[in-house]
């Protein structure tokens, strides 16, 4: 993400075809199975339950691990706090990172001995990248591929249920779902600042501001996605709007590689969730939810307790 050509071109060219719309479409059946398995787990669980940990996170993590061709491991969730920190890391965070790296190195070593159809095996055997390069790519993609999507599923559920017409519309008008998802992606903007830092290679004037060569610029994607000069009533969620031009997935040569996969996951997750639990609802008042701090790279809630059915007196519509 912070590479320039020719190094970046090598990685991007190698990975582009593996995340193309055509290739991603073939994953629909697998994602549907992952989603259905988690919905079954929800039905077996005691209510209220945490949608984030029981459904959203396992769906997103199971999907990206399938795509990469690695096992679902607890180490993949221990690294997020490290992403925004500069070395040296505190001892506990350094230990988390070392465990994360060791787990990914182990996965790559097993792929060296037993290749298969996964993305990391492809990079290792077909592209000819080194074990270290593949482990680095794996670390980046496993984090980028599940924390963003899981938070989007949970927050999207919350937004859609603020007006039950939007939630019900998924079941009654599935053709409108792609546009609704695009508006959700604009409105929520899970990834806040992390991927949008750029370093000027020459002096450049943007508006009336001179950015000198070597200076870093960081763009607030939530602010861009709510720019009143681009979107009318930007602070409103409007599934009827055309959200073309949002920057949730970035832009240019570093535009999000997994955006087509994310859209497919969201479409399947929301469709199946509404079909199975049409009366799903938050089980606590919205203002009691704990939201990630503003310095955190991803927008999200720590947990979203939900319930359904008529037997949960403590649930809150």
UniProtKB/TrEMBL annotation:
The keyword Signal does not apply. Keywords: Heme, Iron, Metal-binding, Monooxygenase, Oxidoreductase. Residues 226-241 have a biased composition (Basic and acidic residues). Residues 221-241 are annotated as: Disordered. InterPro entries: Cyt_P450, Cyt_P450_B, Cyt_P450_CS, Cyt_P450_sf. SUPFAM superfamilies: Cytochrome P450. It comes from the Bacteria. The keyword Iron applies. PANTHER family: P450, PUTATIVE (EUROFUNG)-RELATED. Belongs to the cytochrome P450 family. This is Cytochrome P450.
């Amino acid at each position: 993400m912070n590479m320039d050509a020719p190094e970046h071109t090598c990685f991007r060219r190698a990975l582009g075809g593996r995340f193309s719309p055509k290739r991603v479409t073939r994953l629909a059946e697998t994602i549907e199975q992952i989603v259905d398995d988690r919905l079954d787990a929800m039905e077996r669980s005691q209510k209220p339950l945490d949608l984030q940990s029981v459904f959203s996170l396992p769906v997103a993590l199971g999907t990206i691990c399938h795509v990469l061709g690695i096992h679902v491991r607890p180490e993949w969730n221990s690294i997020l706090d490290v992403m925004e920190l500069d070395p040296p890391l505190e001892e506990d965070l350094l230990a988390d990172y070392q465990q994360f790296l060791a787990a990914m190195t182990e996965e790559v070593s097993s792929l060296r001995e037993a290749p298969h159809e996964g993305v990391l095996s492809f990079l290792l055997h077909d592209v000819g990248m080194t074990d270290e390069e593949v482990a680095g790519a794996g670390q980046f993609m496993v984090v980028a591929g599940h924390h963003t999507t899981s938070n989007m599923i949970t927050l999207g559920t919350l937004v859609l249920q603020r007006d039950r017409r939007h939630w019900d519309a998924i079941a009654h008008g599935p053709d409108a779902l792609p546009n609704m998802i695009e508006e959700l992606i604009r409105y929520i903007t899970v990834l806040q600042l992390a991927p949008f830092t750029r370093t000027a290679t020459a002096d450049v004037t943007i508006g009336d501001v001179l950015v000198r060569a070597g200076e870093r610029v960081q763009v607030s994607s939530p602010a861009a996605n709510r720019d009143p000069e681009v979107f009318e009533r930007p602070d409103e969620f409007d599934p009827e709007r055309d959200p073309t031009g949002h920057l949730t997935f970035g832009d240019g040569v570093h535009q999000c590689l997994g955006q087509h996969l994310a859209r497919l996951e969201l479409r399947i997750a929301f469709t199946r969730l509404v079909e199975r639990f049409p009366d799903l609802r938050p089980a606590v008042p919205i203002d009691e939810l704990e939201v990630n701090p503003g310095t955190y790279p991803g927008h999200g809630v720590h947990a979203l307790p939900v319930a359904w059915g008529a037997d949960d007196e403590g649930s809150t519509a």
